[in-house]
Amino acid sequence: MGQLVAIFLKRFHGGPMDSQQSAQLLPGIGLEGSADRGGRRQVTLMSLKRWEELMKQVGGNLDPGARRANLVLSDVNLENSRGRVLCIGSCRVRIAGETRPCEQMEEAAPGLQQAMRERWGGGAYAEVLTAGTVAVGDEVSWDADTSQ
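Now predict its structure.
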């Protein structure tokens, strides 16, 4: 079982990421108050363990907020998870695909963008299936029934 260890909202496209203790997940929208909302990429997720591996690989020491993902998860492997449903507290999200790293990652640390292209290093993006509040410390687990 994993845990939600951080929540970040983006003020505007390309803008800073603001750390939150809790946030509302809304179907069809994503995180309430975040600039990037709607479509299939309603919320972005990243694995804290994978981020730490990437920092070691490129010799960096960046906070997970530098990744610019909305939700940071511990003990959850997102690699090849397309189509699976993840339970975060009382909410459910369906992984829609892999988040590809942008040029901002290269600006953050030399070699990071390329390193993130392997093993879903950029994390995943998802559609919100069940609305509700998520909070730092919430349990995270894979839903056994991903047929929805």
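Helices lie at 48-58, 103-108, 112-116.
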